Amino acid sequence: MSSEAGDDAFGALLARDIPAWRAALPWLDVRSNDVHTLISYRIARALLALHEAAHQPTVCTAIIFHDVGWKKIPEDKLAASVGPNPKYPELQRVHELEGVAITRPLLQALQIPDVDPDAVLAIIDGHDTRKHAISLEDALMKDADKLWRFTEHGIATISRWFEMTPRATVAMLESFVLPSLLTEPAKIMAQAYLAAGEAAAWMDEMLAAGRTA
User: Is the pTM of this model over 0.70?
Assistant: First the structure.
């Protein structure tokens, strides 16, 4: 068995990160944040493989806890807090502050080896509202978080939130989210996800056209 496979005691998770995941999970049962977090975590590890200078434990811990603060936001306002034209944009900042407040005592209790709680909290505090990155680790976490939106699960979830067609969601991602990515590998990954998303969004029409040609 490879060392990579041996580390993946929970499949997608490194053994080091399992206690953090267990601690975060009760806070992630809103707006599909549990699934979003796992997908973003794996994307973060893919980005980390391309950025050897980044501190992996910081990025992985930050991505696990980054959205726990949404649990404190009224459920009927969640979808209206994000997107190109949010009704409650101030709640993006509120969820960051709540996320820091929730995560701080959890990290103090967990004592994760080689993880500086202050570095993790600094990333959570501003991961959505701060457009620039304060470190390479911050940039990778931001990009992994946003890249989830381009995945099949992300497109389906966002389409449901905003009552948009998958085509409209893909177009929004290309115009609104893609320009905000910070690292070149993330931009390349996003383009690949967009290609798959466009193909899926047009699949019925393309297949029908092929059959009638």
Answer: yes
DSSP 8: -
Helices and strands of the chain, counted as H and E runs? 11, 0
The closest of 92, 97, 112 to 23, measured between CA atoms, is: 112
pLDDT in tens, 94-137: 999 999 999 999 999 999 999 999 999 999 999 999 999 999 99
Handedness of CA 95, 48, 35, 109 (dihedral sign): negative
d(CA 212, CA 127): 48
Question: Could you tell me the sign of the dihedral formed by the alpha carbons of 185, 191, 192, 193, in that order?
Answer: positive
Instruction: Give the domain ranges of the chain.
Output: 3-212
C-alpha of 8 from chain center: 20
CATH topology (fold) of 3-212 = Hypothetical protein af1432 (1.10.3210)
Residues 86-122 as b/e (b if ≥16 CB within 10 A, e otherwise) read eeeeebbbbbbebbbebbbebbeebebeebebebbbb
CA pair distance 7, 69, nearest whole angstrom: 28
